[in-house]
Amino acid sequence: MANRRKSSRAKEKDSAWQERVIQIRRVSKVVKGGKKLSFRAIVVVGNERGQVGVGVGKASDVIGAVRKGVVDAKKQVIDVPLTKSNSIPHPSNGAAVGAKVMVRPAAPGTGVIAGGAVRTVLELAGVRNILAKQLGSNNPLNNARAAINALDALRTFKEVAQERGVEIEKLYV
Q: What is the model's pLDDT at position 109?
């Protein structure tokens, strides 16, 4: 009986996470006997409450690649500080290889104004009001990683006050 309860809790915990596949690409490797085909899946995992991760999986079948991508994404989850209006605390820039992403907080009711992989990352992070722009590359993996980089650089007022050793009230002056 105890095992049954434990397993249902584990399923409940995992069901809070949402998975979205950004891209599935067929890749081939030339070997002695010819070409070996496999699949690469880029997956974003998030709980829409401030946690999100991006992962890549490669396997000989699509389902295996997605499964490996989900495992990889869960290993690389970051915490995103959200404001009361489901936005971010301040503007931020992120970069990964040739891709750059710029994110800015937006007023309530604006929605998620972003494109491609960045939009998926922001939605699964739980951000509801934001402006984002992809600069440089249009590679989905690099753009997703740049978005993660930008979100990882965000800090709350409380964190900044602790780092500086002052009270929060003195930050505004």
A: 93
Residue 137 in domain: yes
Nearest to 87 by CA among 130, 131, 150: 130
Range of the domain at 118: 80-160
* Total-model pTM: 0.86
Report if residue 102 sits inside a domain.
Answer: yes
Q: In what order do the strands lie in the sheet with 99-105?
A: 92-96, 99-105, 130-136, 112-113
User: Last residue of some domain: 59, 78, 97?
Assistant: 78
Q: What's the maximum distance between 2 C-alpha atoms anywhere in the chain?
A: 70
What would the pLDDT profile of 105-123 be if each residue is shown by its tens digit?
999 999 999 999 999 999 9
Q: What end-to-end distance do the CA atoms of the chain give, in Å?
A: 59
